Amino acid sequence: MTFNAAALLLLIAGLALIGWLAGRARSNLLAGRAGTKLHSRPQYHGWYVALWLFAPAALFLAVWASVSPALITNQVLSSEAAESLPAYGFERGAVLSDARNVALGNQDKVRMPAAAGLVKPYADASHKYAWIGIAAMLALALAGGLYAFTRIRPDFRARTRVEKIVMLVLLLASLVAILTTFGIVLSLLFESIRFFRLVSPAELLFGTEWAPTSGAPQPDTFGGIPLFWGTILIGAIIAMIVAIPIGLMTAVYLTQYAAPTVRKWVKPLLEILAGVPTVVYGYFAALTVAPALRNFAVMLGIPNASTESALAAGIVMGVMIIPFVSSMADDSINAVPQAMRDGSLALGATPNETIRQVLIPAALPGVMGGILLAVSRAIGETMIVVMAAGLSANMTANPFASVTTVTAQIVKLLTGDQEFDSAKTLAAFALGLVLFIVTLLLNIVALRIVKKYREAYE
Amino acid sequence: MNRQTAPTDWKGAVMQKRIAGRYAAERRFKLIGLGAVLLSGAFLAFLLFVMVGNGARGFMYTHVEVPVDFKAMPLTIDTTRLGDADADQVIANAGLADIVAFAADEALGTGGSALISENAWKEVRSAIKADPELLNGKTVFELPAASEVDIAAKEGAKGALGAKVDALEKDGKLGTGIHWPFFKNADATDPAVAGIWGALKGSVLTIFIAFLIAFPTGVLAALYLEEYAPKNRWTDLIEVSINNLAAVPSIIFGLLALAVFINWFGICQASPLVGGLTLALMTMPVIVIASRNAIKSVPPSIRDAALGVGASPVQVVFHHVLPLALPGILTGTIIGMARALGETAPLLLIGMRAFIGDVPGGICSPATVLPMQIFLWSDEVDRGFVEKTSAAIIVLLIVLLSMNAFAIYLRNKFEKRW
Predict the structure, then answer these.
(1) Would you state the torsion angle of the CA atoms of residues B7, B9, B14, B17, taken in this order, to the nearest 10 degrees?
(2) What is the pLDDT of residue A421?
(3) So what CATH class is A210-457?
(4) Which of helix, strand or coil describes residue B63?
(5) Separation between Cα atoms, residue B373 and residue B202, nearest integer Å
(6) Closest CA relative to residue B26, chosen from A306, A354, A347, A440
(7) Higher confidence at residue B354 or residue B206?
(8) In chain A, where the domains are located
(9) Exposure of A121 by Cβ count < 10 A (0-12 exposed, 13-18 middle, 19+ buried)?
């Protein structure tokens, strides 16, 4: 007999269904007997019983599922057979999990001889706690169900109570977003503080040497400047040189020149460009664009041309961002009052002059906001740079050389085989914190600009 | 002071030239705009062309005809055990691999066993399991070629290998067919037997879990914010965090999942469960924003009418607003799920990068997902994986495009203009 949370959840869900039917039938019966009308419709009485039956038991189930393994282990450790266990550390855990697997029927026989004596205590303990848990859960479910059942009366306000619970659930659902934000901030801060105990924040922010995976002789250095430069070079410079002119001109053409049918077909096509997964872009950059650029650089005689280049990653990232820039610019241009455009055209300006001298200056704040959002998206992009930009931390302005970025280094630091507490893995969280703060600031500034500008025309 | 200026001579040569110049600038500008649109389109076309060009061959494979004579080289096994669970092991222990290699050497000349995939004997094993009668005679099997031979046959090759492949082709021993193992197998180190089924199943499980969590939470949160939330500081905080979460880089969610789900809660690493939880957190803000827009577009008259005939606020929302907003909500959800399906970076951090040679059994067993499989294969040295990677990309793009097309269809069919 083991504790199977999913099966038990189904069991109480089934009980809740019975409770629902019983509550509904009872309310009808009572109303008929008393010859009065119900305050709430019968199904609300049903829901009231079902919720009282289900919620406390499910809550208990969740708590018990997380607590009972520790209780079981405690009982096993207090048995006689546990005295021969190795003191602490990895082996002790391995023996225990071996015994547990056999006791739960996950494997046929013990792999470690030391675990053999522990199987029976384990089985006994899990048996005992499973029964305790199931009995307590059923008792709670029945008690809750009976309590609710006895409260049913024709004038009982079941609907109000059920609706209160519905509102509570809605509120809880919206709190998940806050919880996630706090989770991100706290987990990043917590691990970063541990990192900053080992390495000073000044070294991470202003150091110029990034070598966390160097060999044993030299100590690891965590100077972040090369990473920040690489991130800016790829995300804020090269990608934007590609994305801004193309995105902007696309938006201008689609809003001002294109026929409605053309617009209707081209916009979804551009959306496809935004919907292609980043790993596909990364593969495309590494397989097709990077070798072509390297050959081009070699032909030009540029030194340090590498198959992993900032240019390849940046160009492909720029292509990925085009639809984003274009749709932001589209919104801003459309938000410019028609009267301004008409006025300019009426004075005899050509559409080209109107766009360049009236529409774009008027839409500029919105466009700038959109560009900031695009930059924030580009510097947080991971797969393209992991696959195409390389991992060597160079401080170079040569776009044909290999550079690395914050995101690529986070992936590299966390996919190695280090222990979780080493400075290298903690460094990834510190980099994550820097990235989070920078993107957050960019987003806040951008949204503020866009909002202010929209208000100006409304 | 009454200064007189001569009226502009619009018909004069100077002005005519200026007007012509302005019109030319206009035409240039329009052409540049058209050029930008065409350039974006060209990027998309080029990307798809490269992927399809590389990947189409990944669905095909080259097979070599190898006659295996079990009369001459008997496989000594107990045929009654072929139905057992360990039949694979029994056949492998009897030395089928050596028999097949020997047969290949005999049929294709010295070094012939190197021309077929090192896993080719497993095909023979499946055939024997399906029909034990094969053991009593000689059968010609079409076995998958080794990765180099496969490439040489598809692209042409020079040197000794090229000559050999040409010779085989002349003898009619080579053939091509649809590579079914690609759709049925999990990852493998040998491109001839590596497939995407394991990754596809992992993706489906992961997305299913993400949907199960993100959809109800997102819709309920949107309903609360749009219909009930009082205007106060808490509501503002919720709104700000949702808008920010939608713009947080995906890799940050990977860090969160690593710190909280894996190191703190100890949820099974690299499993669809923890992957789904991560993607759920990531897509929830997207679903909330899409749902709020859909709910907003339901006209207030509907709410007023329902309230007027005596419905409670909860009944108004769940009986009237939610059903009317559902098409819009579903469209946003599908688009959000499609984005989650293509996501790789956060999953890298929670351990899904490991090589998984089995199809995942449940939500807590180690698994990989389709984009991760693409990433892993793109790192492989073996050239046979190049076309496998592109083929996997084609599968992924087809899945994503059909999800998006379905979302658009849904929107066009059910969306009401009020």
Answers:
(1) 120
(2) 66
(3) mainly alpha
(4) strand
(5) 10
(6) A354
(7) B206
(8) 5-156, 210-457
(9) buried
Cβ neighbors of A232 (< 8 A, separation 6 or more) are A379
Tell me the pLDDT band of A1, cut-offs 50, 70 and 90.
very low
pLDDT tens-digit map of B281-295: 999 999 999 999 999
Residues of A (280-299) whose Cβ lies below 8 Å from B: 280-284, 286-288
Among B168, B236, B145, B47, smallest CA distance to A278 is for: B47
CB contact under 8 A, B216 and A269: no
> What angle do the packed helices A42-77 and A119-151 form, to 10 degrees?
160
Residue-by-residue DSSP string for A314-342? HHHHHHHHHHHHHHHHHHHHHHS-HHHHH
Q: What is the ipTM of this complex?
A: 0.86
pLDDT digits (tens, 9 = 90+) for B71-128: 777 777 777 777 666 777 777 777 777 888 888 787 777 777 777 877 777 777 777 7
- Strand, helix or coil for residue B68: strand
Q: Is A270 part of the contact surface with chain B (CB cutoff 8 Å)?
A: yes
Domains contained in chain B, CATH given? 57-179 (no CATH), 197-414 (1.10.3720.10)
Structure tokens at B278: 């991560």
pLDDT on residue A374: 92
Compute the average pLDDT of residues A215-241.
83
> The pTM is what?
0.86
Q: Among A174, A253, A439, whose Cβ lies nearest the Cβ of B221?
A: A174
Chain A segment 402-441 residues within 8 A of B by beta carbon are: 407, 410-411, 414-415, 420, 428-429, 432, 435-436, 439-440
Give the mean pLDDT of B395-399: 92
**Are the beta carbons of A453 and A365 closer than 8 angstroms?**
yes
Task: Say which of B26, B244, B284 has its CB closest to residue A176.
Answer: B284
Each residue of B183-203: pLDDT tens digit? 888 888 777 778 888 899 999
Contact B302, B311 (CB under 8 A): no
